[in-house]
Design goal:
245 residues; mainly alpha; two-stranded antiparallel sheet; 10 helices; 2 strands; 8% strand; globular; DUF5714; DUF5714 domain-containing protein
Length: 245
């Protein structure tokens, strides 16, 4: 069966978001855990199985790209046929695109092992559905992991950790302004803009900005696109003509 990137990976049915978690069994690996998202037929796929080998594929691309623009890297990776419309794979992309662009820019001398470290940290906190369940989208700790690695933040540290937390707080704010419903694609773009601004502030590094992004994911959104409430929405040609009248 073709991989379904919007709904249940097993049967293609719509996903059910539970207000109270229940014990579920991953249909792929057999892991039993408390989950909040399963399909209407009861299929459940754990986070480890959701991305499967996609993590290594994304990481490989990030480590080998020569692109300096984080938005170009992110848009290309988000368009991959196996990357879901919504899901923490988008958080990996946000962290990876940002660090790859910084690495290729050259000022900070970023090594591949630092990129891998940031993405591994991201995997530990970017958990499917927790944007709505806890108020923290996985893209926020993804960018936080990037700055933590770059600044050397840790619990015993002072300004390194404070700066990292401030960046994460700013990311949460910009994401919150785009919510209703949640959209990982919009969140990635907004987070990269905020991360780039912080990179310039902390490291005096200027990354290329995005030009016009005309989102092509509207029809794929399982909870309905925000359309003209989103700054990245591309009006259908016939609607744009009507607005011009």
């Amino acid at each position: 069966m073709k991989n379904n990137t919007e709904h249940c990976q097993i049967c293609g049915q719509a996903l059910d978001y539970l207000s109270v978690g229940k014990e579920v069994t991953c249909i792929k690996c057999g892991k039993i855990e408390i989950g909040n998202i399963c399909c209407l037929r009861g299929h459940y796929v754990c986070d480890d199985c959701h991305g499967n080998d996609l993590f290594e594929s994304i990481l490989s691309d990030i480590e080998t790209t020569q692109e300096h623009n984080p938005f170009v890297i992110a848009e290309r990776l988000m368009s991959h046929e196996r990357v879901p419309m919504l899901g923490c794979e988008n958080a990996w992309i946000a962290a990876g695109a940002f660090l790859a662009a910084l690495k290729n820019e050259g000022t900070l001398k970023i090594a591949d092992n630092q990129i891998r470290e940031a993405l591994q940290r991201t995997k530990k906190q970017a958990i499917g559905g927790y944007c709505g369940l806890t108020g923290v989208c996985g893209i926020a700790p993804a960018i936080g992991a990037c700055f933590s690695v770059l600044l050397g933040a840790a619990c015993p540290k002072d300004q390194e950790t404070a700066k990292t937390m401030n960046v994460v707080g700013n990311i949460v704010q910009v994401i919150a302004s785009l919510t209703g419903p949640c959209c990982c694609k919009a969140f990635v773009r907004a987070a990269l803009a905020e991360a780039s601004a912080s990179a310039e502030e902390f490291f005096n590094v200027s990354l290329p900005a995005y030009e016009q992004i005309d989102c092509t994911y509207s029809a794929r959104h399982p909870h309905q696109c925000r359309e003209d409430k989103c700054p990245y929405y591309k009006y259908p040609q016939e609607k744009a003509k009507t607005l011009d009248l």
